[in-house]
Every structure is written in C-alpha cells, then in structure tokens.
Amino acid sequence: MSFAYFQNKVVNVQISDPAGDEILHVFRAPEYMTLVKAYASVTTAMGTSKGAKVRLLNYGTAGTAVGGTVTNELGGSAAGNDFATAAVPVEFTISNGALDSGEWLVLNIDEEGDWQGGLMSLQMEFRPGKSA
Known about the structure:
Layout: E1 9-15, E2 22-28, E3 33-42, E4 50-58, E5 68-69, E6 74-76, E7 90-91, E8 98-99, E9 104-113, E10 120-128
Antiparallel strand pairs: 1-10, 2-9, 3-7, 3-8, 3-10, 4-5, 4-6, 4-9
C-alpha cells in the first residue's frame, strides 16, 4: 500500500475584479475526489456596498449547470462581512465535497455593489477517493 495516494492535493486560484456576477470553472476532477478544506481571502477589505458573495458549486460533467452545492456562501456587502478584514483566510463550510470523475467545481461570484476586494485568493484541499 502506498501512502502517497492518500495525500491531499492543493489547488490555488487568484481572482481579480470580475466586473459583475461570474461563474468561474476552477477545477475538473480527474478522478473521484473529495474536497476536504477550502479557504478564501482578499487583499483589500470589502465594506458596505463594496463586496461580493462567493460559494463553490458542482457543475457536473458538462460544466454548464448546477449539479449541487458544495460549500456555504462567504462574503457580502454589509459591515462585518467575512471579507471585512484584508489578508485573513476565511474557511468555507463544506456541505457536499464529493466530486465524481469529470465533474467541474466552479466558483459562483455574486457581486454586490462594486468589488473592492483587490485580489481574491482561493485555496482548496482535495483528497483522492471517497472520504468516509
């Protein structure tokens, strides 16, 4: 038995101002994978009317339609939102991290007002196979 197979894989994505609501395809599962951790942070604090809500979704093998919700929604435009402080990673809550081979993980960005977050860093940690 090789322990290398059970090591987690990390995917990092950097996002700039999307100029509106967006669906960004960030990862296609090459095999059955389980998302075990996910974090987001911004380089500039988001404040009132200057923010965005983000969440991860499963877009299935075609990559064109919501197949399921993967995480909760982070962010917002109210004072004290998840991204009110710059350079502080915020952890997503994973509701269903299972991705079958060929399924697309997308980042759903719902811009509220005008994006003021600078760059957003998204880090996702996957484990090959199905987690118990």
